[in-house]
Amino acid sequence: MWIVDIALRRPYTFVVMALCILLGTPITLMRMSTDILPEINIPVISMVWYYNGMSAQEMGNRITSVSERSLTTLVSDIDHIESQTLPGVAVIKIYLQPYASMPTAISQTVAIAQTQLKQLPPGITPPLIIQYTASSVPVIQLGVTHPSMSENEIFDTTINFLRTQLVAIPGAAVPYPYGGRSRVVAVDLDSQALLARGLSGAEVVNAINTQNLILPAGTAKFGALERNVSIDGSITAIQALNDIPVRTRNGATVRLEDVAFVHDGSTPQVNVVRQDGKRGTLISLIKSGGASTLTIVSELFNRLPMIMENLPKGLIVKPLFDQSIFVRAAVEGVAREAVIAAALTAAMILLFLGNWRSTVIIAISIPLSIFSSLMALAAFGQTINIMTLGGMALAVGILVDDATVTIENIERHLHMGKPMFDAIRDGAGEIALPALVSTLCICIVFVPMFLLTGVAKYLFIPLGKKRG
């Protein structure tokens, strides 16, 4: 066999190659992303419309149907469209063809959304355009509670202080937290007081809007100094809202406090998060792009102590779900199985053949084969995930079988009295063709995987590549 002849003539070349593989593996592992599943690139765009107070039927007739007709006209390479309409919310999912260009489709979707605003109910805001990928899932979820803070204060701290620090983690996207109450300055109208004074809710709204303004005033020079000039047109305290005049008639002024109750309130709560029986908030970190789950989680735990120093004392931030535990367990499981396989194979060779040199060869060749496979995966753009690790675990069995048979056959030729080089050449040559045929037969089973499409393609092709 030609490769055996080259190895016998140039042993130091293969020693250097083994050292290169050994030194290059740590660099490869640091650069490869580690995740629970491979990258599943499903070309889907989500368009989310919001219009508070509108029923689901009206949302479907006035917003969802109009958007769907426009999308099918102006967005290219659409496979199909799915929509779901709820009270105040319309979610439209645009499934594209596998060959579609995502940047082009997103730009077309944004363009048609802007032109639709004039045709939709007045006051509606532009939709939220989201590029959906199945691999963008929460990698860790943090529960935030405090023994004495209210839900309003916990939510305010989470969204304005904790979330702004977490978005700086490379590869992590942090959506709005769940739970808690979104803080607002609430003006609760007294319908009986309004009726008694002949006022309407619209007049109260107009009074607040016209008397709570933020206007640029410019600067004023006083000698060599230039100072900012502020106009007292905006209200800085909640209590000051009560003094806003709503209407003056016949010398009598009706103030806001006469017809409404102004207080520090919140929007209607639509979800509740409990941690250890106490209400709080839940904030998720989502992996975006080709980022590594282990890298994101490790960076989070490195930054969290510094972030906690700037948060209120007594705030409890506790991980409730950590996907890196499963990823790390999968990686450690394959590594453990590889070590066990190499150790048992080496022990078997040492026990039955009694040759320490063959034992060392087996103990070294199996890890080197795994390391070279990892470098090949990195070259193909694959990640370390359950599918590639599963293929690696399957490949270790065949590797052990071929190595054991080859070593035993070389040992047989040595016992026949042949010189070492001849025994290696003849023993490996006799095994080469049968081992190649058996390996090809196994690889043929995985060839149909490369003909898969859709989600199955992204899931099983890494397994087939690694197994082959």
Strand-pairing-aware structural class = alpha+beta
Task: Please tell me the overall pLDDT.
Answer: 82
CATH topology of the largest domain: Multidrug efflux transporter AcrB transmembrane fold
CATH superfamily of the largest domain: Multidrug efflux transporter AcrB transmembrane domain
Characterize the main sheet.
6 strands, antiparallel
Number of helices: 15
Low-confidence stretches: none
Give structural notes:
It is a single chain. This protein has 468 residues and is α+β, with helices and mostly antiparallel strands. It has four domains: 2-37 and 326-467, Multidrug efflux transporter AcrB transmembrane fold; 43-132, Alpha-Beta Plaits (2-Layer Sandwich), CATH 3.30.70; 138-182 and 267-322, Alpha-Beta Plaits (2-Layer Sandwich), CATH 3.30.70.1320; 191-254, Multidrug efflux transporter AcrB TolC docking domain, DN and DC subdomains (2-Layer Sandwich), CATH 3.30.2090. 52% of the residues lie in helices and 20% in strands. The chain is built from 15 helices and 16 strands. It has helices at 2-9, 11-31, 56-74, 102-116, 151-166, 191-197, 201-211, 238-241, 256-259, 293-308, 324-353, 356-379, 386-415, 420-445, 455-467; strands at residues 44-50, 78-86, 89-96, 128-132, 138-145, 172-173, 178-179, 183-189, 219-222, 225-228, 245-249, 252-255, 260-266, 273-275, 278-287, 316-322. The strands form five sheets. Strands 5, 6, 7, 14, 15 and 16 form a six-stranded antiparallel β-sheet that branches. Helix 12 packs antiparallel against helix 13 (386-415). The longest helix has 30 residues, at 324-353. The protein starts with a helix and ends with a helix. 23% of the residues are buried.
